[in-house]
Design brief:
With about 130 residues, this protein is α+β, with helices and mostly antiparallel strands. It has 5 helices and 5 strands. The chain folds into 2 domains: about 1-80, Orthogonal Bundle (Arc Repressor Mutant, subunit A), CATH 1.10.10.10; about 80-130, Ferric-uptake regulator, C-terminal dimerisarion domain (Dna Ligase, domain 1, 2-Layer Sandwich), CATH 3.30.1490. The protein has helices spanning about 1-25, 30-40, 45-60, 105-110, 130, and strands spanning about 65, 75, 85, 95, 120-125. The strands form 2 sheets. Strands 4-3-5 form a 3-stranded mixed beta sheet, with no helix packed on it. Strands 1-2 form a two-stranded antiparallel ribbon. The protein starts with a helix and ends with a helix. Residues about 1-5 have low confidence and may be disordered. The structure holds zinc ion (ZN) (2 copies). One zinc ion binds near residues 28, 78, 82 and 95.
Length: about 130
């Protein structure tokens, strides 16, 4: 029993740290990038643990998993609806401070009779570094 409590406590601490690291950046890191960040504070953590906790956190809606273009999934500490711009050359993903259009959800709901839970809008282009 004591073993289990310790185990849970450890998991919770790891998860909190992963969440803290993710929320401290706006770069929308991949699991690998986040693993490198978390490892500086928890050297013994494994990539699998980071992956697992990211899945749990995104399933709970605490963070967002961004399955936008690119080979690796990226993660976002900001779970609310907001838009992204992605560089098609280097893969950089920035937040875009355009207010989300929730009317489009109402329209989509009316047209499809779906209960719309969220929508996504992704812009693609070349970032300032890649334009030169
Ligand atoms: Zn770029
Ligand atoms: Zn974002």
């Amino acid at each position: 029993m004591e073993q289990l409590d310790q185990h849970n406590l450890r998991i919770t601490k790891q998860r909190q740290l992963i969440l803290d690291e993710l929320c401290s950046v706006t770069s929308h890191p991949t699991a690998d990038e986040l693993y490198q960040m978390v490892r500086k504070r928890l050297p013994k953590i494994s990539l699998g643990t980071v992956y697992r906790n990211l899945e749990i956190l995104s399933d709970c809606g605490i963070i967002q998993k961004l399955d936008i273009g690119g080979t690796q999934k990226r993660f976002d500490g900001n779970a609310s609806t907001h838009y992204h711009v992605r560089c098609s050359r280097c893969g950089r993903v920035d937040d875009l401070s355009i207010p989300p259009d929730f009317n489009v959800e109402k329209t989509a709901s009316r047209l499809t009779r779906f209960k719309i839970l969220r929508h996504r809008l992704e812009f693609t282009g070349l970032c300032p570094d890649c334009q030169s």
